[in-house]
């Protein structure tokens, strides 16, 4: 055997570099890829816009319901003034049916929004 001292400095063995790569870089890369996928899915679905759209639809339905209520009241007042029964009675029944349907839709939208499940999606 030689009496030369063995130097502890020098390049790291290949096995050590592989273990460092496996220990630190692979998990970090995995986390970055997973984060990028999660961010892209979040940006694609835009949940904040969905809620805004449903709120706008509910407000539109409320405005339509108010307009229909006004129209029904007008038709009822003109029907009462008419001496012979006029075809307005059929229109009133049609508007009442539509009004009831719209009110049910508004209630459904509001219930789904309260449950955090807009439009039953």
Would you write up a description of this structure?
The chain has 121 residues and is mainly alpha-helical. It folds into 2 domains: 14-45; 47-121. Helix content is 78%, strand content 0%. The chain is built from 3 helices and no strands. The chain has helices at 14-45, 47-81, 88-114. Helix 2 (47-81) runs antiparallel to helix 3. The termini are far apart. The relative contact order is 0.08. The model has no long low-confidence stretch (mean pLDDT 77).
Q: What's the short story on this structure?
A:
The protein is mainly α.
Largest sheet: none
- The whole-number mean of residue pLDDT values reads 77
* CA radius of gyration: 35 Å
- What is the share of helical residues? over 70%
| Count of extended strands | 0
Q: What percentage of the residues does DSSP assign to strands (E)?
A: under 5%
**H-E order:** HHH
How many structural domains in the coordinates? 2
Helix count, DSSP H or I runs of 4 or more residues: 3
Low-confidence spans? none
Distance between the termini: 78 Å
* Helical/strand content category: mainly alpha
**Shape category:** rod-shaped
